[in-house]
Specification:
This protein is an alpha/beta fold. The N and C termini lie far apart (93 Å). It is found in: Endoplasmic reticulum membrane; Golgi apparatus membrane.
Length: 1012
């Protein structure tokens, strides 16, 4: 294989599938600002390259039906492997005013986990949680159209007729017996055949529009089949971009997309999806198959202009494989959106097989065509409303009609389960409007987890809600002025303060509003519920009528408030120093999990550290999230700072601030690190798409050199030995997945240092021929340390040379540190300790460190160590040393170990030090106000008259639908009554049988006694 084709493997959304992506050698996508015909595009490229005497290039012919139409990109092939030559060509092209970007051409290969030619009804499931129902006789529960009552709409003549549905997949066999209206099959691949020889595209088409055997939702819909994957499951970025452009030209109504991945920063793809939405193409996409972990939504399903669909089983339980929210685009500085819109059936759903007959598949890309087919059915039943149907309005209808599933929160189910009939009712009565997702925020509803999991209090970190604005009126609009905060005085709303940020433009169809909520000083001792609402005014421009409409939207708040907890119950979680993919190459924390190489779940307490967060809450701790540098919090408020798996470097100001907080304010610190080894990092390098160079990861599992800088004044350091193995701590089974070990630690009486024997995992990666049963190494893995300012050795270079990683004794002179802080405070650049107060404690803080965070991370959790975290916190906050750890203490033994050098940084790492921007969050709190009615410049688009005959048709359809739904409800009531009667008869029969048995035994007893 050419080395330039290797990138990395990523998980992606597709029923039971995975994707491999790679950069195509020497091919680039030249992206233009506008669409031009081919000769014009070529002239722009030639003008820049031939004018610079560059001749080693050609424009790759694209032999598809879109070649004759204007396009906004070309594929450029360079006949030179020299990186500098490619860089020069890119540089020259970017100087043309019509060129927007130049990015590498990418290939995608989808890996299906079943044999497409097999005659088996069932398929092998994806190893990450896709389940199979083995009851082959329970067909009634898998007829998805029947379960969602599509037959009622069919009875009313609603069959999808006239709706254009595009299916981007593996094609469709010609003259397949299941399909009535295949309007067009187009081939965007380099194969000659339009037929589907894989079966995935056929299955998806069948769920949407099959008219025989395994019925689809909209059998009369017009199908436009886009073959974007070859029969060997290969595709290219340019194929998708061409196909997307053609879908816009064809004025497609609904587009079902069954690919995706974690890279929400893949700009050509993301921007083209936005363009589709702006052109009124309703895109429906799968949420992903990376559940049950939180924070695993895939793109484009997580975009606000796309309908993102999760999966449930036929018993209405969320499928284990279905990806959960929140979105992670906004981290670490903000908070994620719901991302997931609705859920529907996606487990063992029946659909068309490649040539004839049916098969069953599971996955969220099965759920996606269920919603796509339902959407086609809905649109065909409301053609009189076509002027009002767009990506936002259809999303509003689907969300408002969804049924909330009990026992599941909004990140698991979005708005709830698809309700086809209620959606039809709402669409028939729909009038354009602006809505919000979520529609409200309520800390008292379990559905609103994680907001419901912890109340607000004075001094806590602000609660953030990221709200999506859906504008069903127009594709483009804007927020007028500043949102207003209207506290409900009767419900203690005056105790809250609110700040907002909004998107300047709402396009296409969607925008956002970030809300920051805090408790005022006056609410310090209040316990209860505070209410109020935020109102924003949106100005929409309707091009079809050339009119402007002004709409006011409310966002109600119901906030649970509690008195400020004591310091020993408060923990501060460091989110600020967590980085992820994208935009950087942050590698996996568990090195043995090779099929999931990227750290892309954001390391948040509400994503992959959710179970740890729940455990801490269950034992009574309150957890705040730090989204800013260590110079920005009041250490006197917190019992412990929890630093887990940090990747971002620590600035000198942060290191100083932490020491001051530990020594003067008694702040305790608990650290969970991760592996770091530069040689291992070079072994897992990859080819960067943008620079076309080989890159090693920006850091290891954690940024150990930066962490050592932070811990240096306390005499603690981690090494670059990568340890792995099972061991026991007392009765607790433990697993060290891929962790660092301690190489420097204070040796004071009473401190604790515990070790175990681990495999040298780093060596096994560097040298794969290493014997699997190589001798284990006895190494220290965690320690607990009481800081003492009066016993620290003197040295003038506490932080001084952060770039030097020499194996020197670690100096910890607090007096020198104090002088350095005074000097830093005299600098012109302000270091903000504004949130700190002057309170100081006589007790210095305590520090606990552990070398592996995988036992807290749910991503690939093998053995949880929540008990150890609680033990560390008990030591740090309450100075309690568990007898177990005291018995395991080997500090005197490890004192004799040879000191190892500190791990080296990779020379090109961009994470050498902390961010240059160490400013703290500043909020502009909204002034409380009273509700005022907005003066409408146009009364409302809701009042636009509908033609009388169209109104009559709509009313007739609504009445017929209401009658059918009423009959269905009566039948359901009857069936429920029958089931109740059956359930009542069962215990009665049981009691009768039991009574007969007792009587018989009693008679036998008497008879025996009489005979005797």
């Amino acid at each position: 294989m050419n080395v330039f084709t290797f990138l990395f493997i990523i998980s992606a959304i597709c029923s039971l599938d995975a994707f491999k992506t790679a950069v195509v050698p020497n091919e680039f996508i030249v992206h233009f600002h506008s669409k031009y015909l081919a000769p014009v595009r070529e002239s722009y490229i030639a003008a820049k390259l031939l004018g610079s005497n560059v001749t080693n290039w050609e424009i790759v012919p694209r032999l598809n039906v879109a070649w004759q139409y204007p396009s906004d990109f070309d594929v450029l092939r360079v006949f030179d492997d020299n990186e500098s030559s490619s860089a020069f060509i890119i540089e020259r092209l970017l100087t043309h005013p019509s060129v927007k970007a130049v990015v590498p051409q990418r290939s995608v290969r989808r890996i299906l986990n079943y044999d497409p030619y097999s005659n088996l009804t069932y398929v092998h499931r994806h190893p990450q949680g896709v389940l199979r129902n083995r009851n082959t006789n329970n067909d009634r529960h898998r007829q998805v159209c029947s379960v969602l009552h599509a037959n009622i709409l069919w009875k009313l003549g609603i069959t999808g007729k006239g709706v254009k549905v595009a299916i981007f997949d593996t094609g469709l066999t010609k003259n397949h017996p299941h399909f009535r209206n295949v309007k067009e099959r187009t081939n965007w691949t380099n194969e000659k055949s339009l037929d589907d020889r894989v079966s995935h595209g056929t299955f998806v088409a069948g769920v949407i529009a099959s008219s025989r055997e395994c019925l689809g939702f909209a059998p009369d819909a017009d199908l436009y089949i886009f073959k974007v994957f070859t029969n060997s499951q290969v595709s290219y970025t340019s194929w998708f971009l061409d196909a997307f452009n053609y879908a816009i030209y064809r004025k497609i109504n609904i587009l079902n997309l069954s690919i995706g991945g974690p890279d929400f920063m893949d700009s050509p793809f993301v921007e083209k999806v936005l363009e589709l939405s702006a052109n009124n193409v309703i895109m429906i996409s799968a949420a992903g198959n990376d559940g049950p972990l939180y924070g695993t939504l895939n793109n484009p399903g997580d975009q606000s202009d796309v309908v993102g669909v999760g999966g449930i089983q036929f018993d209405d339980k969320i499928a284990k494989f279905s990806s959960r929210g929140m979105t992670t685009w906004e981290l670490p500085f903000g908070y994620g959106r719901m991302g997931l819109d609705i859920v529907t059936y996606g487990s063992q759903v029946e659909g068309s097989d490649v040539r004839k007959g049916c098969r069953r598949l599971s996955g969220t890309s099965v759920s996606s065509p269920v919603v796509a087919g339902a959407a086609a059915l809905l649109i065909s039943g409301a053609f009189q409303k076509m002027d009002f149907i767009n990506p936002a309005s259809l999303k509003q209808v689907l969300i408002e009609s969804a049924e909330k599933l009990p026992h599941y929160n909004m990140f698991e189910q979005g708005a709830g389960k698809l309700n086809l009939l209620k959606s039809m009712q709402l669409l028939l009565s729909y009038k354009p409007k602006i809505t919000l997702i979520p529609a409200y925020l309520d800390f008292t509803e379990n559905y609103m987890w994680p907001y419901s999991s912890q109340p607000l209090y004075y001094g806590s970190s602000v609660a953030i809600a990221n709200v999506t604005i859906l504008n069903g009126i127009s594709v483009t609009s804007q927020i007028v002025g500043i949102p207003k905060w209207i506290p409900d005085i009767e419900n203690q709303g005056q105790f809250l303060q609110v700040s907002t940020q909004v998107s300047p433009i709402v396009w296409p169809w969607t925008g956002w509003m970030s809300i920051y909520i805090a408790v005022k000083k006056e609410g310090d001792n209040f316990e209860g519920v505070c209410k109020g609402s935020i109102t924003l005014v949106v100005e929409s421009f309707k091009q079809s009528t050339n009119e402007t409409y002004v709409t006011e939207v409310d966002f109600p708040l119901t906030i649970k408030v509690t008195p400020k907890p004591p310091r020993n119950k408060r923990i501060l979680w460091d989110q600020y120093h967590s980085l992820r993919y994208p935009p950087r190459y942050i590698p996996r924390d568990d090195l043995k999990v090779k099929l999931d190489p990227l750290d892309w779940r954001a390391d948040h307490i509400h994503t992959n550290f959710k179970e740890m967060y729940t455990h801490l809450r269950n034992v009574g701790y309150y957890i705040d999230v730090l989204r800013e540098p260590f110079t920005c919090f009041n250490a006197s408020d917190y019992g412990a700072l929890l630093i887990v798996d940090p990747e971002r470097g620590f600035a000198d100001e942060e290191i100083n601030a932490l020491q001051e907080n530990v020594y003067k304010r008694g702040l305790n610190v608990v650290v969970f690190g991760d592996w770091y080894n530069t040689t291992v990092m070079k072994k897992i390098k990859f080819f960067d798409e943008n620079t076309r160079q080989w890159w090693t990861p920006d850091t290891g599992g954690a940024n150990i050199p930066a962490l050592n800088d932070l811990l240096k004044p306390f005499g603690i350091a981690f090494g670059d030995f990568v340890g792995e193995g099972h061991f026991k701590l007392g009765d607790h089974s433990m697993y060290y997945a891929s962790g660092a070990t301690i190489i420097k630690f204070p040796m004071n009486p009473g401190d604790i240092l515990v070790g175990t024997k681990l495999n040298d995992q780093g060596l096994s990666i560097i040298n794969p021929k290493t014997p699997s049963k190589a001798a284990k190494v006895d190494v220290p893995i965690f320690g607990m340390f009481q800081t003492k300012a009066n016993s620290i050795q003197s040295n003038e270079e506490i932080i001084g040379n952060a770039e030097s990683n020499l194996a020197e004794a670690i100096p910890t002179d607090y007096s020198t540190f104090k002088n350095r802080v005074l000097l830093l405070r005299k600098k012109e650049r302000s270091i903000s300790f504004a949130k700190s107060n002057n309170h100081e404690t006589k007790n210095e803080g305590r520090i606990a460190v552990y070398g592996d965070s995988n036992c807290l991370d749910s991503t690939h959790l093998e053995k949880a160590c929540y008990w150890l975290l609680i033990t560390f916190l008990d030591f740090a906050i309450n100075s309690h040393k568990s007898s177990l750890l005291q018995n395991l203490n080997r500090i005197s033994e490890f004192h004799k170990l040879e000191r190892a050098p500190l791990p080296l940084r990779i020379s090109r790492s961009i994470l050498k030090s902390g961010s240059q921007d160490n400013t703290c969050e500043q909020f502009e709190w909204l002034t409380p106000t009273k509700r005022n009615n907005v003066e409408q410049r146009k009364s409302s688009i809701l009042d636009v008259a509908t033609l009388e005959n169209e109104e009559n048709e709509i009313n007739l359809m609504k009445n017929l639908l209401d009658e059918e739904i009423a009959k269905l409800l009566q039948n359901n009531d009857y069936l429920t009554g029958m089931q109740s009667a059956d359930s009542l008869m069962t215990p009665i029969i049981f009691l009768i049988i039991l009574s007969l048995i007792v009587i018989i035994l009693f008679v036998l007893f008497l008879k025996r006694r009489f005979i005797l």
